[in-house]
Amino acid sequence: MQADSVDYSSFSGWIDSPAEYAPTLTGEARADVVVVGGGYLGMSTALRLAQRGADVVLLESEFCGWGSASRNAGYLTNTLAGDAQMLAALHPRRLSRVIRFADSSVEFSNKLIDQLGIDCDYERTGNVIAAVTRGQLRRSRHNAEILVKAGADAEFIDGREFGLPDAFLGGIYERAGGLLNPGKYARGLRAALLDSSVKVFEHSPVGSIRPTDRGVTVTTTAGRVHADRVVLANNAYSRDLAITPRNLSAPLWVTLVETQPIDPERLRATGWSSRVGISTHHLVLESFRLTPHNTIIFGVRQPETTRGALGARTADPDVVDDLVRGFHQRFPSLESVAPQRAWGGWIAMTPSWLPVVGEATKNIYYAIACNGHGLAQGPYLGSLLADRLAGDRPVDDLEAVWRPRPWFTPSPASSPKALRTVWKIDRLADRLDGNTR
User: Fold this and answer.
1) 37 in the Ramachandran plot: left (φ > 0), alpha (ψ -120 to 50) or beta?
2) Are 231 and 360 in contact (CB under 8 A)?
3) How many CA atoms lie within 13 A of 371 on its CB side?
4) What HEC string does the chain produce?
5) Predicted structure pTM score
6) Are 331 and 324 spatial neighbours (Cβ–Cβ below 8 Å)?
7) Other beta carbons less than 10 A from residue 16's beta carbon
8) pLDDT, tens digit, for every residue of 224-253?
9) CB 348 within 8 A of CB 408
10) Which of 170, 296, 329, 392 makes the best surface tag, with the fewest CB within 10 Å?
11) What's the CA gap between 140 and 407, in Å, rounded?
């Protein structure tokens, strides 16, 4: 099961690119609000603003859903990035509020999928943060207590009794959400957007955003939009714009690999009867999930970063090989199952590992939601921000992640050396604190 047998996609393994695109912006345009970025957050912000009666323009450099929206592993979850014990220590007063935000985001996404009639292969299984070593199991039990005390809809479970694969000893079961096809979900949001009053311009990369006496001017390669306000919803790519607050986030390239279809009998033999999505308790998680066509998609484990342009790229074969080794360790009975494709995408990691939203400067807003966890948080945060821009009083879920000033410390995730060190620590811990089965 080596990387040289893999089909490397420069887009996604979930879905193909659309057959037709929205027009490119040319010339001058006018709007109440310009949304920059056509991911989950950007599309949801624009849709909600249009529902509230605003004249909205959305600008996307490729096509809506091109970025991490169509490339992620498809976990609809209330999971927060970062270890619960660490989050409780760093954010003791905010933890319960942010947990309520995350829980509400899953409820919102469930309703959104139903309201828009999006067929995205959604399985409401919940998800598990699982332990593969004795040390992880102890930490998992403690973290479950912290989360439950803070109000999370979660519980500590035994792996075998719950129906996890044999290598996973137990963990934190988060009941809300489940698994879906993120490409189909993004395509469904895009269809709703194109069918709305929002003026969508694809293949229209933004070059500059300039405050003026009358609002804001957004310039693309072939046109300009004059607006009252702007929302930066371009995730990892926000750092390409000078107006973005310094150190708002660090870009991480995350790789996923999909196996060939596996005989159902062999899948049952692994003990994975619950079909829940699984992420591990490592410092940098490993993720494993089943698909409706009996393949396993696994990834993360060794994210990458860069100080240069983000641009389109394919997965690194060395990283794919490392992911395959991790898959073998967790599923030794499936060692002969070959991979069929690999892809990846850029995500944004904030310094706090929590969602953030605020005002970069007058009339220019920014928002980053998921930090690599919980795709549900993007649509929900976009909707909350839209309601605030429409004149509503901010609700507590929005206040829980609102930043009163656009100042951020540098993120450790911006250092390739730091990421490699964390990978080494995880691998050492695997060897020194082995699986009890």
Assistant:
1) left
2) no
3) 22
4) CCHHHCEECCCCCCCCCCCCCCCCCCEEEEEEEEEECCCHHHHHHHHHHHHCCCCEEEECCCCCCCCHHHCCCCEECCCCCCCHHHHHHHCCCCHHHHHHHHHHHHHHHHHHHHHHCCCCCCECCCEEEEECCHHHHHHHHHHHHHHHHCCCCEEEEEHHHHCCCCCCCEEEEECCCEECCHHHHHHHHHHHHHCCCCEEECCCCEEEEEEECCEEEEEECCEEEEEEEEEECCHHHHHHCCCCCCCCCEEEEEEEEEECCCCHHHHHHCCCCCCCEEEECCCCCEEEEECCCCCEEEEECCCECCCCCCCCCCCCHHHHHHHHHHHHHHCHHHCCCCEEEEEEEEEEECCCCCCEEEEEECCEEEEECCCCCCCCHHHHHHHHHHHHHCCCCCCHHHHCCEECCCCCCCCHHHCHHHHHHHHHHHHHHHHHCCCCC
5) 0.96
6) no
7) 11
8) 999 999 999 999 999 889 999 999 999 999
9) no
10) 392
11) 33
Cα–Cα distance, 346 to 71 (Å, whole number)? 9
What pLDDT, in 10s, does the model give residues 114-141? Answer: 999 999 999 999 999 999 999 999 999 9
pLDDT tens per residue across span 387-434: 999 999 999 999 999 999 999 998 878 889 999 999 999 999 998 876
What's the token pair of residue 94? 């905010």
CB neighbour burial string for 183-219, b if at least 16 within 10 angstroms, e if fewer? bbbbbbbbebbbebebbbbbbbbbeebeeeeebbbbe
Amino acid of residue 143: N
Q: Which pair of tokens denotes residue 193?
A: 């957007």
Q: What HEC string does 326-394 produce?
A: HHHHHCHHHCCCCEEEEEEEEEEECCCCCCEEEEEECCEEEEECCCCCCCCHHHHHHHHHHHHHCCCCC
Evaluated on CA atoms 247, 300, 309, 33, the torsion sign reads negative
